[in-house]
User: What shape does this take?
Amino acid sequence: PKKDTIALQHGAHRIGNRTDADMARWRSLRFGQFIHWGVYAIAGGEWNGKVYNGAAEWIRSWKEMPHEEYDKLYRQFNPVNFNPQQWASQAKDMGAKYMIITTKHHDGFCLWPSKYSKYNIAASPWKKDLLGPMIDAYNKAGIDVYLYFSIIDWNHPDYRPSLKNAADSAAGKRFQVFVKNQLAELLQRYPTIKGFWFDGTWDASWKNDGAFTDELEQYLQSIHPGLVMGSRLRADEKGARHFDSNGRLMGDYEQGWERKLPEKIEDVHGNDWEAVMTVPENQWGYHAKWMGHVKSANEILEMLVKSVSLNGNFVLNFGPKADGTFRKEEQDLMTNIGAWMKVNGDAIYNGTYAGFEKQDWGYYIRKTGTDSVYMVVFNMPVSGNLRVKMPARTYLTGVSMLQNNVPLTPELIGREEYFLRLPNKQSDVPVVILLKTSTKE
Ligand code: FHN
Assistant: This one.
């Protein structure tokens, strides 16, 4: 926080992270699955034989695609192969502990039969609710569900990016009531959800009414105490987003880490945070022709591990097809990540910043509140020597491989400083070593 604080009515209402059980749970889960699913999946990034180079879920904004054509796509939305139990079990097998689903993206199409908009799943050939069965299936698999909700709504007659005159302001007021109604409806229909994931809050019409965003956040908390909501919902009365005009985080965690990660612990200023990541370049919804680099399981695992090592959660995005199935690349990725998580997940869940000096071989993660520290090795040195430098007054009491409990014998090379060597230097996946430590005064 900046030193000179200004008086704010609608800035952050809390200094430091939430300490309650609901937030502790969110923090312990560490690995989430994001799903972008909606009528954009029908177009799959193509229209009239042409390929859209932007993000598939933005195709409605492409000059090649007339809005009227996009707005008719819902008449074809019929995910006959949608199997929520299978979705949930593959997410569980991948190791995800929470899931975020797009209830409504910028196009305004609602995956639930909303009372407040006709542009919803009930009007599609599928006819029935999609969200309910999905939430139930994930919950049954032990996975917490969060609801993505876009404030930008291209379908709603009252949505305005900015309010330029009295008529706009009147529309803006009606739109706020609509948003509030839809969110209350979601909470009432799906009481097991753990939080909202807001998006599309950057337009002037939204961020210039900090008071409303503040009231809305409190209203949602009052209906469903404990809800977890990130920093994208709020603005303060000066229009500052994420961080108020005094530099304090608004919302329950920093939600600005989209397709990028912090480098070092100082970058997150002690705040809870979460990163969301796409598998290819900037594609969230289903795009038939992925462009650019497609991340491998090892690359994703490194991002997950790095996030946890810096006190954050990591959420990997999937864009299912319009028929309700996942493309092969995404299925394979889930399988490969899951194979590693089954063996090494102990290093991830409930993991936190370890407070050890970073080394080039990879990342340290501490099991929250314990003396167990995991080393996750991504870059094996040619020498085979993994350097471990303990913080002052910390001692090594045991070293073993997480995958099979085989003990390793550390070589003392300096004061509280060791080399570790693995029985086998070669590995196609990151290797995890468990350090048991003790601290003396
Ligand atoms: O515009 C959206 C985008 O389509 C996607 O939903 C991402 C996910 O974080 N959020 C917005 C861009 O920040």
Notes: The first strand starts at residue 31 and ends at 35. Residues 55, 57-58, 199, 258, 276, 284 surround FHN (CB under 6 Å).
